[in-house]
Structures are given as C-alpha cells and as structure tokens.
Design brief:
Shape: elongated
Order of helices and strands: HHHEEEHEHEHEEHHEHEEHEHEHEE
Oligomer: single chain
Largest sheet: 6 strands, parallel
Number of domains: 3
Number of strands: 14
Number of helices: 12
Structural class: alpha/beta
CATH class of the largest domain: Alpha Beta
CATH topology of the largest domain: Rossmann fold
Strand content: 15-25%
Distance between the termini: 71 Å
Length: 340
C-alpha cells in the first residue's frame, strides 16, 4: 500500500475550527478512497509541521475521528483507518447492567429510533464496579455518545464524570448531581409504587393486608419500599414488607405485590394459592411489576405496574439526537386484570 499523501490546507483565519478542518480533510480523502481501510495516517509531527498547526490541534482532530470510530491508534505505530463509512453522525456506547427481556425492548426501541443516524454498540457491566469502570475508561476515546444504566451498589459519580456532560445520557437508573448539563430518563420507583397503590385504592378495599415482596438482591428495592411505606402511612392500609413469600403467613385477604423481573415470587404466590384452594382475585390479590404476554393470560390475567420500556428507548434516542439536557421520569401505568 502506497503512503498516504495529503494535499489540503488549513485556513489561517477560519470560521471553522482548525481541528475540524483537519478532520474534514481526512474524512474527504477516506470518502473518495484516497485514504484506504487499514492505511496509516501521517504522524502527528508530520501533520503539525506541514499544515503549520499545533500538535494539540492535530491530537484534537485525531480524537474527534477516533470517537466516531473512523480511525484508531495502535501502540507506537500511530493512527490507522478502521472504518470507511464516514457518513454516520454518531457512534454510541450503550451500557446496560444485564440483558433482560425488558432491557432488550428498550435497546431495540433506542436502536430503531437512532436509525441510520448512528452506530450503536452494546456492553454489559453485570453490577461489577471494576468492569463498569474499565468499560467506560477504555472506551472514552472511541465514541461520540455514552448511554449508561448504572444500578451498582457503589457510588459511580466520579466514573460518570469522566464522560463529558454533552456526551453523557443516563437511562433507567437515577444519577443526579453529575457535572454539567446532561439528559436523563429514569424510573421513579418510589413515586410509581405510591401512585399505583393510590389508583388501586378501591380494589384494595376488599382485602385486609398488602404485602410487598422485595428481595434484598434487587437494586431498586429500597426505592420501592420507600414509596410503599409512604402509601402505608398516608392511607392507613395494613401493610408488610418481606424478602420472600412465607407459606406460614399466607392468609385469605392478602394482596401480594411482587418485584422480581424473573417472577419467582409471583409463581410462589400462585402455587401457595392453589395448594390452599384460594381463589386469586377473590381470596388472594396479586400485583406484579412489569408486563409480559404470559401475565396477560396467567390465572385469568395478572394486574401489573408497567413502565414503558419502548418509550424509554425511543425517548432516549430523541434526547440524544436533539442534544436535549432535560431530566424526566419514564411514564408508568397500572393495568388492572383479574388478579386484583
């Protein structure tokens, strides 16, 4: 492969920043095929000297192209072209905790809304702080935007603040008070549970006790419990918070509210009801978090508190593309079915 020879100039008194002029020139040569895939770029010193610009300006231009996934640096070998599709406007780092059915809905909705305006690459941290930190730090030079869902037990503000505010978008989890102005769309677990229980008020009246099953392993349990206990104080309705379903304390007149995304507790309540010949929706009530097709038909239909994952994904994409910086809670609804 012949060495790449550039022949564009940098304006001395430009209306467009010099680093963007350099990036524009390199992109134009990639688009025309003059600069080919895997071809090395001239050194920083060579670009600086021949274009009469500072090394800092050259590095800024190269970082700009690296963020967009067009070039990449190799240790002690300089920069190389890794992508000749230069028409993409955004290169998006999408970080989730894990890939549940609900997170998949959000991701696919986000990807659909982004369309051909950007490339989206997905990563997972699995609630591991060292993985979370490494994924963000290692990828800072390579993406134009970072869409991040946290849910870690440790404080990750310092790590999130490594991402420039104009490149950072927080989804699902609530991460306030970071540096700069940045968009965030999150689940208001405390407010959602309170509002749902208020809406269920008339149907709750035929029951004697409301039991929240909130396993300590769930990262949002504390927030749900907070809203649940506020409802108990304000309504005076008898309530109880437990980490698992107890067959010895399972009585006619109980309403169970289950949180787990894997529905172990929901299944346990149904099994206990059947073993004691209790009728669900009459003797025992059930409310479950997050809707699925199975819950529409299980036991004649399970009442659910459902956040719109599709809306969260599409709205996050809209906020990113429009460079919005607002903070908003994702909409949630209570869907009544036969179980309550």
């Amino acid at each position: 492969m012949e060495p790449y020879l550039f022949d564009f100039d940098i304006e001395k008194h430009p209306s467009r920043p010099k680093y963007l002029q350099l990036a524009d020139g390199l992109l134009a040569d990639i688009e025309t095929g003059k600069l080919k895939l895997n071809q090395p770029l001239p050194s920083v010193n060579k670009l600086s000297k021949e274009l009469s610009i500072s090394r800092e300006t050259v590095f800024k231009a190269l970082n700009f192209l690296s963020e967009r996934g067009v070039i990449k640096s190799a240790n002690r070998q300089g920069y190389f072209v890794i992508n000749t599709d230069v028409k993409r406007k955004a290169r998006i780092f999408f970080l989730l905790d894990k890939f549940t059915t609900f997170k998949e809905k959000m991701y696919l909705s986000f990807q659909k809304a982004i369309g051909d305006q950007g490339d989206v690459e997905i990563f997972f941290h699995h609630h591991n702080l060292s993985v979370f930190r490494s994924l963000i730090i290692d990828n800072l030079p390579h993406y134009t935007h970072f869409v991040v869902l946290t849910f870690l037990r440790e404080d990750v503000k310092d790590i999130l603040n490594l991402i420039p505010a104009n490149k950072r978008l927080i989804i699902d989890s609530y991460e306030p008070n970071l540096n700069g102005d940045y968009p965030m769309i999150y689940q208001d677990f405390s407010g959602d549970i309170y509002n749902a229980m208020e809406k269920a008020g008339d149907r709750l009246k035929k029951y004697k006790r409301l039991i929240l099953v909130a396993p300590g392993t769930l990262f949002h349990s504390a927030l749900v419990i907070q809203g649940f206990q506020k409802f108990a104080r304000d309504s005076g309705f008898p309530t109880k918070v437990v980490q698992n379903v107890n067959g010895d304390d399972f009585h006619v007149g109980d309403v169970y509210l289950t949180l787990s995304g894997y529905d172990q507790e929901l299944v346990e309540v149904i099994k206990l009801s059947r073993s004691k010949a209790y009728t669900i929706g009459k003797d025992i009530g059930i409310i479950s978090y997050n809707d699925t097709p199975v819950k529409e038909v299980l036991e004649g239909g399970i009442t659910v508190i459902n956040t719109s994952w599709e809306y969260m994904g599409s709205k996050a994409a809209e906020m990113l593309l429009n460079q919005e910086t607002k903070t908003m809670a994702n909409p949630t609804q209570l869907i009544f079915r036969n179980s309550l």
